[in-house]
Write a structure and sequence with these properties.
single chain, about 110 residues, mainly beta, 7-stranded mixed β-sheet
Length: about 110
């Protein structure tokens, strides 16, 4: 059974940074395509970043150049480094693999 546990969210000022973590069990993050999504009360859940085998990555246009997805096989963890955060990045961020989702971590960008 796959379990995903996110952490690292919080309150940050515009221009600040956060690093989200997603600890996985029941799968190897190194052999799996892993996604980060985000959701606000007003909008549908949208994908933010993904990392595939061979470390191919992709990002939604709104975060390109600011967010970086990576993974650590020894810790079986996927990360989302978020820099130059904007109020529009405020959302609950979720880790995903196929049909498995974590519980989410809240990111709030506000002065």
């Amino acid at each position: 059974q796959v379990q995903l546990v996110e952490s690292g969210g919080g309150l940050v000022q515009p221009g600040g940074s956060l690093r989200l973590s997603c600890v996985a069990s029941g799968l190897s993050v190194m052999n799996s395509t892993m996604w980060w999504y985000r959701q606000t009360p007003e909008n549908a859940r949208e994908w933010v970043a993904l990392i595939m085998t061979a470390d191919v990555t992709n990002y939604v246009d709104s975060v390109k150049g600011r967010f970086t997805i990576s993974r650590d096989g020894a810790r079986n963890t996927v990360y989302l480094q978020m820099n130059d955060l904007k109020p529009g990045d405020t959302a609950v961020y979720y880790c995903n693999h196929q049909h498995s989702w974590g519980q989410g971590t809240q990111v709030t960008v506000s002065s």
